[in-house]
Amino acid sequence: MDNSPAIAAAFEMRPGRYPEHSTLDLYREVLLGLFAAWSMDPADIDGLLVPPGDMAAERPDILMHEKLLDELGIRSALSETLFAGGASYGLMIQRAALAIAAGRARAVLCVGAGKFPKSDAGVRRSMAKIFHPEFELPYGPTIPAMYGLIATRHMAVYGTTPEQLAAVAVAARQWALLHPDAYMRKRGAISVQAVLDSPLIASPFHLLDCSVPVEGGGAVLVASGDVARRINPQPAYIRGMGECHSHGFQSQAPTFDGSVGAREAGRQAFRMARIGPETIDVVQIYDAFTMMPIVCLEELGFCARGRGGELVASGATSPGGELPMNTYGGLLSFGHVGDASGMSMIVEGCLQVMGRAGERQIADAGTALVHSYGGMQTDHSTLILSREV
User: Fold this and answer.
1) N or C, where is the chain less crowded by C-beta within 10 Å?
2) CA angle 260-262-268, nearest 5°?
3) Does residue 128 lie within any of the structural domains?
4) What CA–CA distance (Å, rounded) separates 270 from 111?
């Protein structure tokens, strides 16, 4: 029996607009797609981790795991609803890996589906969950504006430029053109000038500096090594993991020109994997806004602090570059699938390591780093995936 945890299967439905689908309908679509794409049976699963259903609702469904157990027709040794924003899925995988390593489970399904709020009331409920009730919410903040504060501070301290931010969006679109399911693929290539010419949303972010709200979902199966290899001859082994919760609200953050959480989660993952940033072949980073991959590249050790903008502008993260990043198009061009958005970069990291990424496959992608964050950069997860145990 091999308790080495690995991701055996990964699937994501095509992002888009699904007005006729409830959140539960999207979950059904994801599960049907997963089982159609991989030779596996629900009976193989003895664990299930999901986020709450519809976080923008007045009362989010905190018992979604029970509904999906019934949908799958299985009993589970490990099952719960877990939520940490965009970091939820990375943390689910960490929980699943620890349970498998301890012999508590053999195959844990981590699945999510998401819709963006469609009403002003839904938007207000979402804002109330992530903004401090005394020091932030009364002043009418928006998510782009709050992330704009982070970007403005980084630009002031390190000289990061709007052109460097725009280069993140340009690279993401280049990758999206290689992905048949990317939502923005049909819009074609963009230039740095096109980003700068797009409408200003919240300084310094223009429209094309912001992720694209869509709907969808995805799933991964975390399994013991022997179960994983039965399903997939080349699974993505979970070689390193890291987690950090640095603060609760942005007004309480220890710094605005970096990310303590990303730095600590990355440090833990590299220490566990016993490798350094120089050995990573492909990087997937949560990119709700163009500044955030720049910050995370710095904090994760891929360049010195203040040099992330230069790194991206050099073409290093674009197709053909030395550090391919967000090879599926990122949230900026693949699509930001609501509460399920943290799953997208995990699925892509898995597919790259498995050698199943199609036209966008990175040759000899032996290791992938996946970093996601939730809230206003409050919750952080780092995963290092590998072709080898």
Assistant:
1) N
2) 100
3) no
4) 26
